[in-house]
C-alpha cells in the first residue's frame, strides 16, 4: 500500500557520502540543488566529515526534516535506514544510488543512476519497506560470517595502505582463501530445531535483487518478509573457490553448494563469544548469539508512483 507524497511541502535533507562509488559527490549535489531543491519547501545538503557517524547525522536530521535522502552505496543507505527505523517515526527516506552494486535501490526500483533516482523523487509515492535486523543492527542486503568478513578486513587494510584500487580487492579474496584453514562452527536455532554446521561461509539474505543476480533461491521468500539462511557446504579454500566459480557462472546448486533454510527468524551461535560479521559491505565485531529477524514495514521510503515490473 502506497500513499502520495507532497514534495512541495517537505523539508528535505540529503546526506551525501563522498566515498561511495566514483566519489562524484559534487556532481550529484549540484544536480540535487538544480533539479530537486526547487520542488521542495526547504532543501539542505549534508556532507559528513571524516569519522562522523552517518547514522547519528541522519538521526539528528530526522528531528526537523520530513524527508532524508541517502546518497551513496548500500552502506550509506543502511546507516540512514538504521537512524530512521530507530528514531525517524514518520520521516520518509529517499534513495539516490552512488555505490558499486546498489542492491537496495534496485530492490526499490528507484533507478540505478543518480539521474534516474532524482526523477523518481520528483514523482514518488511513499511505501512501507521491511528491513533485516541483527541484534538491533539494520541490514538491507545480507549478513555474513566466515570468509567474507575476513576478505573485507584485508581489503580495507590494503586500501588504507595503498589506495582504493580494484586489484587489492582481488588480492584480499585470494589471500583470505589461501589462509582459510579452520572452518566456522555454527549452531542455528530455527523453527524450534537446532542445527549444527561446519562451514567456510554462511549468510542471511534480505535483498531479492542480490539473490536473483546470483541465481540463488529465496527471492520470493524475501518478498514475503522471510529470511533465507545459506550455509556453504565447503569447509576448505578449494571447496569455497569451486562454489564461488559456480556462483559467478550462475550454476550454483542448493544441494551441491549450499544448505538453505527459510524462517522468520534465526538465532545463531558460533564457536567464539564474538565474531566479525559483514553487513551491507561493512564489517563489525558482534557478540554471539546473533539474533536475525525482520522489522516489518520499519521504513517509509519514496518509490516510483508506478510499481516496478516483476
Automatic annotation (TrEMBL):
<dbReference type="InterPro" id="IPR017438">
    <property type="entry name" value="ATP-NAD_kinase_N"/>
</dbReference>
<dbReference type="Pfam" id="PF00781">
    <property type="entry name" value="DAGK_cat"/>
</dbReference>
<dbReference type="InterPro" id="IPR016064">
    <property type="entry name" value="NAD/diacylglycerol_kinase_sf"/>
</dbReference>
<dbReference type="GO" id="GO:0016301">
    <property type="term" value="F:kinase activity"/>
</dbReference>
<feature type="domain" description="DAGKc">
    <location>
        <begin position="7"/>
        <end position="138"/>
    </location>
</feature>
<protein>
    <submittedName>
        <fullName>Diacylglycerol kinase</fullName>
    </submittedName>
</protein>
<dbReference type="InterPro" id="IPR050187">
    <property type="entry name" value="Lipid_Phosphate_FormReg"/>
</dbReference>
<keyword id="KW-0808">Transferase</keyword>
<dbReference type="InterPro" id="IPR001206">
    <property type="entry name" value="Diacylglycerol_kinase_cat_dom"/>
</dbReference>
<keyword id="KW-0418">Kinase</keyword>
